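Researcher: I'd like a structural prediction for the single chain below. Treat it as a standalone chain; there are no partners to consider.
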Amino acid sequence: MDSAQMDSAPVDGNIVSLVQTYLDTSFRLEVRETRLSTRIRYGAAGITEFTYEIRLARPTPDRQWCEGGLQTGCEPMPGNMTKLMALVTWWEGAEPQRYGTAISQAASMNLASHALGSGRGPLVPDYYGYAQMGRYGIVLQQAMPGRRVSSVFHRMGNHQVDVLFHDIAGVLRRLQSWRLPDTVTGWGSVTLTDRGEIRSSTAPIRPRQPCTSLEDWLTCSALSRLQLADESRIIDGWRLYGLRNRILNYVRRGIPRLVQALENPDHRVLTHGSLSCTNLLCDERTGQLTAVLGTNRAIVTHPFQEFLSSFLVGSELTILPYDSGPLNLDGDSLRFYDDIFRRALDFHAVMTPRAIRGFRDAFAHQVLTVSILPGHLTQRCEFLGLVPEERRDGERDESAARLNRNLSELGF
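Model: Treating it as a single chain, here is the predicted structure.
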């Protein structure tokens, strides 16, 4: 639902050099080739994530690890590996601490690995090291088998699609039913301690204290977006349109009302947040899911959030991976595949939107909070010149009208 999009821009030479230097200084590994696999920009947050395929000049020695010793939560690198993956996060227009550092990402991957470790085999890649270098974070991870669903879906037959959707439903079921560690007591992001424990991380706008409830987490998330809107010279906290106080009024009164109407608001689960065709690998021949990527952004929250963050949700609560648009599916095809997916979700007893009382209110809340911070009007986008100056006032007026409508529909 937020502005997450694929970006086909060329490989950034500085980032490639950063990755190669990290492998050389931390692992004494020589790189033969580095190729950009994906680049996803999260506009409102000012974050870009790059995934690189790395081919080594020679196989790794047995049980290779970082020069300073095996890092907390990491696995030793097996011998005879010639291919790795590097996840590089670039905090272009935001402080890393606001959205989770490389250590926080490693903690999320660790939780997801435990949650999804059963079944035919591990679906989450092992990670071998991580580092935070200013506004860049690197997580070095295992190269997983399979092809991205987004690149092969159009060639898959109905049987393979059915197998794939059952596997995705199984992932959702495992995430919903997995018991969180006792050390994870809060809501939102997680982090790793020096002793290797995974604990709840601090709230985005409240240092040194994690979110203690769903209401607390929703409030902090909304206020964090408003804070970024305040920092944007274009938006200026929506003061010009008289919307800022209405937003604060919604946060104070609307969020408690939403939580009160929600079924079991204390129910916490691990939420992937981006179970899209781009983050799923499969065996094209059988349709079986071979890997779940993107778990670095996993957080702890209510089950409704997965469907708001990972899937298209419209007036009919249609459920399909949110980036199915690039698959060029027409309306009839979408309805056909949606029916297959619904049956798979029911078979695996996944808690879906229609089974969550108050889900439509949660959906309206998501729409509102996203409209508080339109990705194309943030400070970062202004810096990069993504919206020409002559169009900024018009774009801002349209976004303000949308935000006004969303507030009015909720009674604020």
